[in-house]
Every structure is written in C-alpha cells, then in structure tokens.
Amino acid sequence: MAKYFDVHPANPQPRTIGTVVDSLRSGALVAYPTDSCYALGCQLGNRDAIDRIKSIRNLDDRHHFTLVCHDFAQLAQFVRVDNDVFRAVKAATPGSYTFILPATKEVPRQLLHPKKKTVGVRIPDHVVTQALVSELGEPLLSSTLLLPDEEEPLTQGWEIKERLDHEVDAVIDSGDCGTEPTTVIDFSGDEPEIVRRGAGDTSRFE
After folding, report:
1. Is residue 205 part of a domain?
2. How does residue 192 score in pLDDT terms, banded at 50, 70 and 90?
3. Cβ pair 61, 114 in contact under 8 A
C-alpha cells in the first residue's frame, strides 16, 4: 500500500519532505503535485520504477521522460543549451513548460529518445516540487500522471491513493493542482516546435 503524505502547499513540512526523499533514494515511485498537474517521479537510475511508470501509463520506448530540475544550473548539467535556447528557456522558467533538448552523458541511456538522443527538462513553479528536488539534490525523473484511455490527469491525492495504491509507493497531497499538463517545446531541431499546448503560454515561441 502507498504511504500518504499531507503536505502544506505553501510551507511544506521539512520532516515530511525528508521522509519522501529518503524513500526516493531507497527506490520508491512517488505521485506528487506540480504547477501543472500530478506526476509520477523517481530517482534517475531507478530502472524498476521507470518500468513501473511505463506499465502504469502504458508507454512505449519513444516516450520522452522529463527531468524535473531545481534550477537552471542543475538543468544545464543534463542538456546541451546554446545561447539562443538559453535565453528562451531562461525567460520561461520556472513555469509550466517542458523543453526537449539534446542530452549530455549525465542522462542514463534508457531515458533518451532512441533516435534523437534527447530528453525533456523542466523547472517547476511549485513550492512542494521545489522542496523535493532541492532536498534530493538531483533532478526527479518524471512523467505526467495520465492513465491510459483517460483524457485528463488525476488531480486529487486521495483519488490517486485509491486508484494506484498497489502501484506506487507514496502519494503527496498538497491540494488540487489542476488538470492541464505542461506546454512542451522541442528545441532539438533548427526551429522551436510546439509539441503540446498546455498550461504554459506558447506565444513567446511562435
């Protein structure tokens, strides 16, 4: 059964955040809130949890996982960013955007797009998510908590606990965080491509 953590949305309890991070370091798969919607998260090298995410969401090998980063300095360790892209990404973070960029060697091969060798990265504007990745000290490997054949992500912690009780190890509930996933911008080509229109304003990339 999944452990259930009630976390204050503006002032997350440090002890609770520490407990969740300890479980992540021990191999846990966690459902947690972001500034767009709930997500599934685990440590970067956790192959078992990655396989569980793929199973829960019925994903294939072409799925772009996202590295949820604490800040731009951390993000830049895992993707290659030229000057033009740097300015565009910097201006839009933190926020409800995911950026697809060429990965550095810091990213495990299994997380890369098989042909393009890219990975998704984002810096969320959410106090609880920021507390998690800050305490973890590395990006949180994530995927939107959108179940197969459903049009919208799950938004309530108690419902996630009920439906995924035997598939995740922990659920963090800090209130409703909406149903709209991030806007996804692919910067791996010559021009930015809007892959998914979501919570982030796309006008700056058009």
Report:
1. no
2. very high
3. yes
